[in-house]
Amino acid sequence: MAEEAATVEVRDLEVSYGWGRSATRILHGISMDVAAGRTVGVVGESGSGKSTLAKALTGTLRPTAGSVRISGADVFATRGADREALRRKVQLIPQDPYSSLDPRRTVGEALAEAVDPRHAHVKKHQDEVVHWLDMVRMPADTIHRYPHECSGGQRQRVAIARGLILGPEVVIADEITSALDVSVQAEILNLIAKLREELGLTMVFISHNLAVVRHVSDDVMVMYRGDIVEHGTAADLYERPQHAYTRALLDAVPGAPGFDITPHPQENSV
Q1: Taking phi first (over 0 means left), then psi (-120 to 50 degrees means alpha), and beta for anything else, what does residue 47 get?
Q2: Do the beta carbons of residue 93 and residue 39 sit within 8 Å?
C-alpha cells in the first residue's frame, strides 16, 4: 500500500530565544510528518518545547533554522495574501479559551468573526454558527451567551468550534484539557475522538499527559528539552516504551487511567 503524503512536514526545526551568547536554544532540529487524516500526539513536561513547536507550526513564531510545510507550501516563505490563506488552513485550539475569547462578544459573534474577521455579522453566518455549536454538542441558544456565562468545558467546546469552523487542513490542539477536571477532560476527549472520525481531522495534539495523548493520537512523539527522544505508534509507545523519560512520564500518570472515548449523550452538560 502506498504511503500517505504528509500534510505537515517539519524539517530540522530550530528555535532560539535571545541573541549571541545569551541565546537559549528551545528546539533542537525537530523533524516530523503528519499525514492527512492522522493525529500525532506531542507529549512532554513543561519546558520541553511543545508550545514553541505549536507556535512554529501555526506560523506565529519564526524558527532560527529549518522549515515547516503545510500541504507543500513553506509557511515562512509565503507572502501577502498567500500567507494569510495558508494561515487560515492551520488553526489553533488554545489551552485557555477564556483568554482567547473577547469577553465583550457573544459566542455567536466570536464564531462569526472566525468565519469572516472583517464582516463578523451573526445573522449573516447564523446557520453555520448554529451548525458548529451542534457539532460540539452545544445548544443553539449558546449563540447569545457571553464567555463568562459558560462553564470551562463549554468554553473549550466553543474554542473547538472556532478552530474547526473554517474547515482547516491542520488543527493544532495545545493542552486543551489541562485546565479541566478529570470528568470534563474525558468528555472533551470523547468529543475530539468523534470529530476526528466524522471530519477526518489532521491534528497535532499537544499535552503533558501520556494517558490523554494515547486515546486521541495515532502516533506519539515524546519531547524532552527540545529534542524528540521517542516516536512511535500510540499503542507501541504506551505498552513498550524505550526511553527512560517516556517511562518516567508513564509512571507519573496515577494508575495510568484510560478514558472512555465512546461518545455519551450527556456530553453537552459541561
Answers
A1: left
A2: no
